[in-house]
Amino acid sequence: MPFSIFRNMPKPRQRVVEFSIKLVILLLLFASLYWQIVRKDDVGKVFDDILTMIGRNRNLILLVFSMMFVNWGIEAWKWWLLINRAEPLSYFRSYLAIFSGATLTLFTPNRIGEYGGRFIFLNNPLRLETLQATILGSIAQIWVTILAGLGGMAWWLSHSAGVSNELLPVLYAAVVGTVIVLTLLYFRLEVLGSLLGRVKYLQKYHDRWVKLIHFSTTELLQVLLLAALRYGVYLAQFLLLLYALEVGIEPWQGAALIATIFLFQSAIPSIAIFDLGIRGNLALFVFTGFVGTNELQQVVAAAFCLWLINLVIPAILGYAIISVTKLFRS
Hints:
Layout: H1 4-7, H2 11-38, H3 43-56, H4 58-83, H5 91-105, H6 113-119, H7 128-160, H8 168-187, H9 189-197, H10 206-210, H11 217-244, H12 251-266, H13 275-287, H14 293-323
Helix pairs in contact: 2-14, 3-4, 3-14, 4-5, 4-7, 4-11, 5-6, 5-14, 7-8, 7-11, 7-12, 11-12, 11-14, 12-13, 13-14
């Protein structure tokens, strides 16, 4: 938190405040993990499945684990491209910032903590350009999740909800139309800004939002492609975990169902540490009817393992980074 009020403190007081902040983060991290993992009675069976999976498919699990660093590396690249417009930052420091953000993300609503975690590496975190760059990166990731999720959900509905053959063309046409409209809106942020400016409570932010149009089409495309690449890595991790747990499903079917889960998950406000229950229930809901009853537990185990690898482990690594990072810089 490099705010001037803290920067101007005497050095001894700065050290006390910095230690207190790090201690609070550590306590929240441990409390969150304890509450969500240790106190859950039904987690034991899931852990048994994961341990069995590791024993049988160690190389595959190592691959999924290594993909976690690729996943967050792409996110760091995306943020680095955007944030350098506001403040020069090396890719290495951007990578460290991403992991720091993952720590605060774990116990803050709707992942808003990731901004605080990232901003400790910036000299001017509250500059409008800095906030806009970070927001745009999130918008691109949400856009990809929606676009891919709509396609997956269309397939899921057509094969699980008994949609008649007559309605299938309408369903797919609606999905294609929505994808086109959303894509055009992403590349025409001024239109989206004008629409938001008509909302009474958002009018005072209209001018700030419109400044996002200063990003060129090339920059917007780069960010969107990186978001898509990261999404692909995340989806591939889930799919590989399903295979490691010997869930019998075709790759394209699994991809469609996973995209549907990600879409539903993005629409549910939550705190990341409590995502475990949501992920498990969504996995059961979406996969029911596509895999055997005995395999549903393995699907839940795959969702749990993905949560551990992509959220919990980065959060722990992020705290290690925060603990050795000076929070108050001149």
